[in-house]
Design a protein that fits this description.
This protein has about 160 residues and is mainly α. It is built from eight helices and no strands. The radius of gyration is 15 Å and the shape is globular. Mean pLDDT is about 85; it is low at about 135-145.
């Protein structure tokens, strides 16, 4: 049961931050939908919590995000955001998580406004550095391929 709760928390975290992550990746809801084989309305429903994200949707979206991180080296902010929000989420207190989410929304709004590259990275480093106490300048390569997927599949096998 603990494994299922952890899995549900990971799914809920992605769903809560999906809109911001999508904007930081530079995608419209239609583009993300096309990448995972759903409509833009499905993405909108997930982002607005009208429907709950399924494990299958979580895996598809995480895979697309990982692919973007691996292939778009110019977007240095996306791997930082994904690492903090999705890979290390349990390291933070509820208060820190809320501040992180606020910062991510600010970064996403900045990205939506057409700011990218080094300017967006500077915004990100400044916001996260203020919360976490250390600037994030070199996270770029630490999102490890499918480590999160291996963890989910291993935990799923345990429950059988």
């Amino acid at each position: 049961m603990e494994t299922r709760n952890k899995q549900n928390a990971q799914i809920a975290c992605l769903q809560k931050n999906l809109s911001a992550i999508r904007k930081i990746a530079g995608w419209t809801s239609e583009q993300l939908g096309e990448r995972i084989g759903v409509t833009k309305q499905t993405i909108s429903n997930l982002e607005n919590a009208k429907t709950s994200m399924t494990l299958t949707q979580y895996i598809a979206i995480r895979s697309i995000i990982d692919f973007e991180i691996q292939t778009n080296k110019e977007n240095t902010v996306l791997p930082q955001v994904v690492d903090i929000l999705l890979n290390r989420e349990e390291e933070y207190t509820d208060e820190e998580r809320e501040k992180i989410s606020e910062s991510v929304r600010t970064i996403a709004a900045t990205a939506s406004g057409g700011i990218g590259g080094p300017a967006l990275a500077a915004v990100s480093a400044g916001l996260f550095g203020g919360i976490l106490g250390t600037p994030l300048l070199a996270i770029g390569g630490i999102v490890a391929g499918s480590t999160w997927l291996a963890k989910i599949l291993k935990e799923k096998d345990k429950n059988k």
